[in-house]
């Protein structure tokens, strides 16, 4: 797990890290990446779209070797099924199983074990 | 609209109406409950509801966990004489079935009808003059007479002396047995690949998914996911689900493939488990709110697993800088590092959950959770009252001879105001409890282990 939808919705929450400097987290030391089929649902994708940071999604997908998404979020008729299928693949089917996510600001490392990231903060990083 | 008769499963009577309401809401069905309060009594085994079509009645039977059977209602009465009179006034009802392969079924709730009288009852409908083949095994239609008796005190065995002393009798055409009840067998914990000692039972996990209006296209979150019970049932009904927990061992289990994924594969819902992430909800990495259609959770309340949050116990200061180990590396970067945790008081957790939900839900989204309560201490105001979150349902399940129980609370987000991320007790002065009310579930763990005895002052 750790799909790009999750990556796009989480940010570093250590003390002193604020949006937008704490986002997107940077994948490092990814030693296991898998592609697994997920159930396609256009309604779900359309609902998620306004919540996504498009540039972060496109850039992160590229870093992981997927260049299928357009630089700009399509509008109107360009938001067709072909586009939604590509979006579905990038958001829901690429899994990072082992590796880490780092904060672009404070460099806090969130390790990913068995596909489950540990996002707990250290004691001194908890906001007051 | 036309009347349909619902027969409920004999359990969780307080949960019946909220579930019915939720599923009607989910499918956008028009449904009218009886006007008289005594006919809307949720402890009765039968209820008559008005619906637009037979198809709608079937939808309810396929999705409501607490519906046993649905019937097209032809007549209801308090005596057979009255029932037959109503029936005979409308022979057009059964005319289409004159040549149908059929059988009659006579039954009762809270009673066993003696065999001899069953035949009498069937024969009393001879005026319908059905000429079709009678098939006990494969009938095309089942015509049903159902008697409803008052509930007997548990343990009392009926000796048949109250035979025919029924409250109501119904006649109708059976449409469908509730198929959702079979899911209880499918989701039985005993057959689940991965579960823990606080895993929610199958029936209530399914009920919660119904209260959450789980359906394809929805996004549902469990912030105390544990071993994932509600994730599986919500995903089964088509939702994309997301789980988080402060304890990664619960989510992962001991095998290489995380436990949650193993059970999800068993239920063929792995394709809808969006992700599971380890964090403390009071110190969470969500980038934005308004993400979820529902939040569904059984928060840890300290009987089998005490709730914890990051921090140090009362009075102890938090470290301001990273601790540097002898080898010069910061301690928190070592794989063995575990941040300190402190007990998380239930009363505080419940308020935080409602406030978190108000932030994370889309407007109109639902929060569904269990609140443990001590019967003598519970007051209605114990359910957190948070502006912008409205109570939809509150159903009690009792344990320990009624001394304590848990309430399934369903709330709806009614505000569409954009709110900031809550601070969860790292509270600003103006965020403290507004009225200083101490809820009855405060200190639930301590009260549970003390056997819920009232604390007496030494003077007594």
TrEMBL record, chain A:
GO process annotations (BP): rRNA (guanine-N7)-methylation; tRNA methylation
UniProt cross-references to InterPro entries, sorted A to Z: Trm112 (IPR039127), Trm112-like (IPR005651)
Listed SUPFAM superfamilies: Trm112p-like
Any Pfam family matching the protein: Trm112p
Source domain of life: Eukaryota
Gene3D superfamilies (UniProt xref): 2.20.25.10
One example GO MF annotation: protein heterodimerization activity
Assembly: Interacts with TRM9.
Family assignment from sequence similarity: Belongs to the TRM112 family.
Listed name of the protein: Trm112p-domain-containing protein
UniProtKB/TrEMBL annotation, chain B:
Compartment annotation: Cytoplasm
Keyword Amino-acid biosynthesis on entry: no
Matching PROSITE patterns: N6_MTASE, SAM_MT_TRM11
Residues in tRNA (guanine(10)-N(2))-methyltransferase TRMT11 N-terminal domain copies: 4-178
EC number(s) per entry: 2.1.1.214
Keywords: Cytoplasm, Methyltransferase, RNA-binding, S-adenosyl-L-methionine, Transferase, tRNA processing, tRNA-binding
Broadest EC class assigned to this enzyme: transferase
Domain of life of the native organism: Eukaryota
Keyword Glycoprotein belongs to the record: no
Molecular functions per Gene Ontology: tRNA (guanine(10)-N2)-methyltransferase activity; tRNA binding
GO terms for biological process, alphabetical: methylation; tRNA processing
One cellular-component annotation, GO: tRNA methyltransferase complex
Region (Disordered): 419-442
Major place of residence: cytoplasm
Residue ranges of domain Ribosomal RNA large subunit methyltransferase K/L-like methyltransferase in the record: 191-309
Family to which the UniProt record says this protein belongs: Belongs to the class I-like SAM-binding methyltransferase superfamily. TRM11 methyltransferase family.
UniProt cross-references to PANTHER family, sorted A to Z: RNA METHYLASE-RELATED, TRNA (GUANINE(10)-N2)-METHYLTRANSFERASE HOMOLOG
Name the record gives this protein: tRNA (guanine(10)-N(2))-methyltransferase
Organism: Calocera viscosa (strain TUFC12733)
């Amino acid at each position: 797990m750790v799909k790009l939808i999750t990556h796009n919705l989480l940010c570093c929450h250590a003390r002193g890290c604020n949006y937008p400097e704490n986002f997107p987290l940077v994948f490092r030391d990814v030693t296991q990446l898998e592609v697994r089929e997920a159930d396609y649902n256009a309604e779900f994708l359309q609902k998620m779209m306004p919540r996504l940071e498009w540039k972060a999604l496109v850039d992160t997908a590229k870093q992981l070797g997927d260049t299928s998404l357009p630089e700009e979020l399509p509008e109107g008729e360009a938001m067709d099924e072909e586009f939604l299928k590509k979006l579905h693949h990038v958001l829901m089917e690429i899994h990072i199983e082992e590796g880490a996510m780092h904060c672009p600001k404070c460099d806090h490392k969130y390790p990913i074990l068995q596909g489950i990231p540990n996002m707990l903060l250290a004691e001194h990083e908890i906001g007051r | 609209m036309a009347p349909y008769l619902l027969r409920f499963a004999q359990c969780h009577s307080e949960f019946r109406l909220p579930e019915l309401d939720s599923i009607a809401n989910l499918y956008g069905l028009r449904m009218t409950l009886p006007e008289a309060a005594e006919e809307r009594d949720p402890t009765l085994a039968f209820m008559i509801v008005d619906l637009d079509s037979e198809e709608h009645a079937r939808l309810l039977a396929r999705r409501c966990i607490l519906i046993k059977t649905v019937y097209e209602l032809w007549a209801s009465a308090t005596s057979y004489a009255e029932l037959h009179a109503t029936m005979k006034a409308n022979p057009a009802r059964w005319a289409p079935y004159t040549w149908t392969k059929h059988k009659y079924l006579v039954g009762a709730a809270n009673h066993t009808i003696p065999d001899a009288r069953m035949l009498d009852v069937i024969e009393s409908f001879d005026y319908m003059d059905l000429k079709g083949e009678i098939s006990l095994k494969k009938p095309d239609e089942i015509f049903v007479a159902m008697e409803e008796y008052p509930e007997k005190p548990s343990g009392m065995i009926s000796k048949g002396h109250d035979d025919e002393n029924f409250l109501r009798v119904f006649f109708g055409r059976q449409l469908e047995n509730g198929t959702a009840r079979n899911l209880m067998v499918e989701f039985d914990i005993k057959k689940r690949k991965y579960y823990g000692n606080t895993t929610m039972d199958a029936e209530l996990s399914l009920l919660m998914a119904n209260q959450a209006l789980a359906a394809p296209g929805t996004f549902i979150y469990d912030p105390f996911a544990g071993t994932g019970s509600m994730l599986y049932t919500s995903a089964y009904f088509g939702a994309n689900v997301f789980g988080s927990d402060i304890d990664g061992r619960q989510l992962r289990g001991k095998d290489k493939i995380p436990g949650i994924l193993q059970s999800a594969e068993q239920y063929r819902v792995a394709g809808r488990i969006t992700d599971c992430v380890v964090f403390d909800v009071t110190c969470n990495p969500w980038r934005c709110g308004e993400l979820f259609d529902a939040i569904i959770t059984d928060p840890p309340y300290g009987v089998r697993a005490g709730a914890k949050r990051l921090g140090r116990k009362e009075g102890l200061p938090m470290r301001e800088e990273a601790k540097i180990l002898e080898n010069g590396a910061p301690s928190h970067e070592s794989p063995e590092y575990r941040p300190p945790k402190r007990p998380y008081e239930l009363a505080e957790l419940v308020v935080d959950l409602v406030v978190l939900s108000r932030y994370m839900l889309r407007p109109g989204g639902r929060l569904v959770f269990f609140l443990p309560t001590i019967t003598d201490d519970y007051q209605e105001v114990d359910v957190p009252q948070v502006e912008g979150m409205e109570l939809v349902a509150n159903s009690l399940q009792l344990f320990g001879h009624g001394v304590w129980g848990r309430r399934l609370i369903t709330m709806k987000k009614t505000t569409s105001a954009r709110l900031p991320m809550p601070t969860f007790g790292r509270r600003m002065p103006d965020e403290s409890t507004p009225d200083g009310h101490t809820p009855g579930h405060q200190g639930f763990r301590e009260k549970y282990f003390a056997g819920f005895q009232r604390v007496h002052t030494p003077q007594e």
